[in-house]
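In this section we turn from sequence analysis to structure. A common task in structural bioinformatics is to predict how a protein folds when a small molecule is present, because the ligand can shape the pocket around it. The inputs are simple: the amino acid sequence and a SMILES string for the ligand, here magnesium ion. Study the lines below before reading on.
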Amino acid sequence: MLTLKSVQAGYGRLPVLKGISLHVRPGEVVTLIGGNGAGKTTTLQAICGLLPPRKGLIEFAGQELNRLSPERIVALGLALVPEGRRVFRTLSVSANLELGAFHRQDQKQARRDLGELQERFPILKERSRQPAGTLSGGEQQILAIGRALMARPRLLMLDEPSMGLAPRMVTQVYEILKELKEAGTTILLVEQNARAALKVADRGYVLETGRIILDGTAAELKEDPEVQRAYLGKGYREVWE
Amino acid sequence: MFLQQLLNGLTTGSVYALIALGYTMIYGILGLINFAQGEIYMCGAFVAVLLLATGKVNFYLAFAAGMVAAALLGVALERVAFRPLRGAHPLVPLISAIGASIFLQSLALLLFGPNDRPFPIQFTFSTITVAGLPLSTLQGAILAAALGLMGLLMVFVRYTRYGKAIVACALDRDTARLMGINVDRMVALTFFIGSALSGAAGVMMAIYYNATYPRMGLLPGLKAFSAAILGGVGNIPGAILGGLLLGVAESLGAAYVSSGYKDAIAFAILIGVLLLRPQGILKGRGD
Ligand SMILES: Nc1ncnc2c1ncn2[C@@H]1O[C@H](COP(=O)(O)OP(=O)(O)OP(=O)(O)O)[C@@H](O)[C@H]1O
Ligand SMILES: [Mg+2]
């Protein structure tokens, strides 16, 4: 469904992605794991068209995305839950959700979807008239996910949805992802929190300084000593002895 | 006397507020001050006055045409004077705006000459007494029309899909694009609406002062800029509040201090605000 072939991208003259290849098949949950500054956000921005790639090919549902604007790419059925949530702070919760469906032709159906979404996430209904900036971090994350779902995406991408959240909220956000997965949503999940991500993912890639250094099924990655050492926080001792 | 001055101030203030809304909306979405806003106001006045002078167009149509012409001028200005400069140092579009302002003034001078034109149709305005307060129906009409337009704008921004999209672009451009919002189109829409309001203000003042001339936009433009800063630039209710406050301060100052200082008052307020509360009364961007 989504394919990246040797994608290179960067800011100014600084190369960040040095040839990334990955793919996501329909119905799959794929995670991209990596530490600070590995290039995870850059990868998502390249896919979304916010940072057009220099080289390589990005393809979604048989269409090349390389030179398309973010507006066009969104309309093809890609939605991103950006890093740090990026809700529109002074707009109400319901206005944020409505904007998620901005590009859709079927605005009537979008209104019904809004109602359904608010039934599903009661917090978004309770706070519907409140400015989004007044929600807690976890609530904002749920709002950002809801906003992306309002686009009825064919592929949902999330950039570190657990970042800066209390453990209870991380659990709640991952519950939502699990439900989405069971409903058949195709997901590309970027995380530093490998433990959480590998629990829900089918497959994963490990990104380090702009290169994919490892890939495999979630089970394989969980057992990989390098992943355990670097991303699952198990000490050398535990791994080597 | 005091109440009469207050009413005078609210009348001119509501017109400043209309222009200030243009400054503030454009600042909100692009982060630039469009110093040609006063010339857009002048354009609205000229189009209405010239159409009425033909004797073939009724007043409301001429008023609407003035607003539309101003709006289109604003959109054209964005295309040629600002869009090519996106991403440049912030001083660059500022200089471009000042250049556009001088250009438009000179063009009007060339086309229409330097003389004042009276408003082509005579309205019979009377003074009625409301609650012991003598109220000119002209002032009443201007105030009501200006407040009505502001109300429409607030409803547009708060309750319509495109209004919310404009706010989203002002708050976070990249994320707005991820919603599928075409930022360029929203910028153009913002120029259209902000300029239409300035055009309406121009027609109102052409009636109020019975004078239309190429440099008519200069002082109201600068005063409305001060009003936008006073209210907190980028803030829509702030622009309205700033405009009304400035109009009243000017009118009371002229009555009780000296009418010679009338125009200086706005700039004294501007300097005062910049020194004491540069973020304005209602701070913040977006909304
Ligand atoms: N706008 C930018 N301009 C210049 N360099 C940038 C910009 N954004 C990111 N970088 C650089 O690109 C590299 C990759 O950044 P990126 O944000 O993709 O990392 P990340 O994997 O998402 O990290 P994190 O987990 O901290 O979010 C970093 O070295 C970063 O400094
Ligand atoms: Mg990141």
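Chain A touches chain B through 24 residues (CB under 8 Å). As an exercise, try to locate the residues that line the magnesium ion site and compare them with your own expectations.
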